[in-house]
Amino acid sequence: MHIFVPLIARAAWLALALLLASCGGGGGGGASPPAAPPPQSQSYTDPTLYTSGSGASLGQPVEIAAVTQHTVTVGGTVLHYTATAGHLTALSPGGAPEASFFYVAYTQDGAAPATRPVTFFYNGGPGSASAWLHLGSYGPRRLVTGVPHIDASVQFPLVDNAETLLDVSDLVFVDAIGSGYSEAIAPNTNRNFWGVDVDAAVFRDFIVRYVAVNQRQASPRFLFGESYGTTRSAVLADLLESAGVEVKGVVLQSAVLDYNSNCALTAKVTLPCTGFMPSYAATAAYFGVAPAAKAVPVGDFVDQARTLAGTQYDPALRNALSGGAQPDAGLLASLASFTGMSASVWQSHFNMVPDYFRYNLLAGQSLGRYDARVAVPGTAPPSGDDDPSSYLITPSFSFRITDYLANELKYTTPSTYVLLSNAIQTWNFSHDGRALPDTVPDLAAAFAQNPRMKLLVFDGYNDLATPFYTTERDLARLGAGPDVRVRSYMGGHMLYLDDQARPLAKADLADFYRRALGN
Amino acid sequence: MGIDANAWRALVCALALGCAGGMAHGAEATVEVPMRDPWVPPELAKKARVAPASSGAELRQEVDRKLRARFDAAAPSGTMTRAEARAAGLGFIDRHFDAIDRGHAGRVSYGDYRRFLVERGAALE
Description:
The complex is a heterodimer. By secondary structure, chain A is α/β, with parallel strands linked by helices. Chain A has helices at 10-23, 131-136, 196-213, 228-242, 277-286, 298-321, 329-339, 343-348, 354-360, 388-391, 394-407, 423-426, 440-449, 468-476, 501-516, and strands spanning 44-45, 65-74, 77-91, 97-108, 118-122, 141-143, 158-160, 170-174, 183-184, 221-227, 249-255, 365-367, 375-377, 411-412, 454-460, 483-489. Chain A is built from 15 helices and 16 strands. In chain A, strands 2, 3, 4, 5, 8, 9, 10, 11, 15 and 16 form a ten-stranded mixed β-sheet that branches. By secondary structure, chain B is mainly alpha-helical. Classes of the chains: A alpha/beta, B mainly alpha.
């Protein structure tokens, strides 16, 4: 069953790198190559032991993949597709092997590669594998989580995904180094790629390699990152454009573009938490405890919350944080009416951090961080993960990803699929002279090199990790020039898990790709 | 494909819920730390100086400096040939070299590159 592709020798790597450089990875030009027949199916038992430790590295990377054929029905049309699960080696611009990336690619059979878009998906952390997007969002198969009403006593069913993006684009889910089954190649170790700049650079090198090996030089390319993956996307888009690899569009799911604008990311809270207030309001509205939300459509209510945050709360908060006057009673009453927290609580916690809100909105209950609609009994933070919207879904994703890879995609390994590595503990967050990354300038630099690039941003109103209003304020820094669209729905950080939000977001995605491709 | 109910309960306990009492060791835990994305390690969060955000002209100047620094790193003399751009991994300049090199000098400066970007619509000014 196993077809072993010989290891690429160093000389061949160099030759390939030179070939790549001469191609420039540019889109367009030349006749479209004919659509190739789907590759032959093969299972693969990878004997390599992949490890996630900071000092770990591979001696001999393999580039063998399991290949399987499947179908999925989207909008009444049956799509035939090939799943390819295995490793590809990222090469430095000088041609040296850097790291062995584990990826799963879904390619539509019979499509012309020159015009067929390809989208690269990755989660964040940093240190997270791509299993969340892979099994939760727009892949051809997805887990039914029931979010926000999660029953963790059973494994989530894995079903065909009617909202898969495969009808629009080929999809490549790729794991960061040290996560999933991705690992550095000696003399590098995993830690060599644990930093804002080195991580984005090695992702660039993976994408360049994927494009070259699969002859996708003419395919329109898209990036789809979530959370820290949006930080990565901003840096990566700039690096790809600089390398001559044009990016048609970037999708940011629950963005954190500027770590310096999120008050929950600094231990000593000196930043105004303005950006969280509209998320508190949307969450209070969901639970029916926001008087101001009564009889107001949620979109209008959220707009009113934005206005209150921007025009009244933010200036008063900045004033108070700099030692100025305390807030007046009228503002405290408005905040209470919008968020369901009393005026006296707002007086004593005027710069309200999300963890306080999570444990104090509902008597005797605590709320999720990723999705504040997920409420569980108890108000004392447990040891370990204190986010029910995370720990209630983690077991199913953790189990299902290896089960799915082995049993449906026919890729097996003795290795442990690392859903989250310890990379974050030693991650080099510094970037362009700042201790914590601000990647708005990276996005602006990508737009400077490619003014036709398009950006689509998804936010969940109930996400208390990357609040939507903070993201909107960060994006406003780009000015009116770049093509940026923001879509926000009731839902959490992983908005796509919500059965109401996902079809709406899929329609937004289809429209975004049509516009980006000029159709 | 499946996993029996007892093993599943053990896995759920191991990964997340901290169930009381003994736990089966048969389930393989693959999560080493709680998922908290985004997150900054407390030591760094404590000492990191929060940086102000640039916008408008200040952001455009920052982008200009960023692009210039990348160019200068690959062109110590101040100009580069197409081969030098390619060798430095600057595929964009390589691809557009002829358009950037308006004077057909065979070498381009940051000013040439910047002018090309602005003509294509870059907001650098």
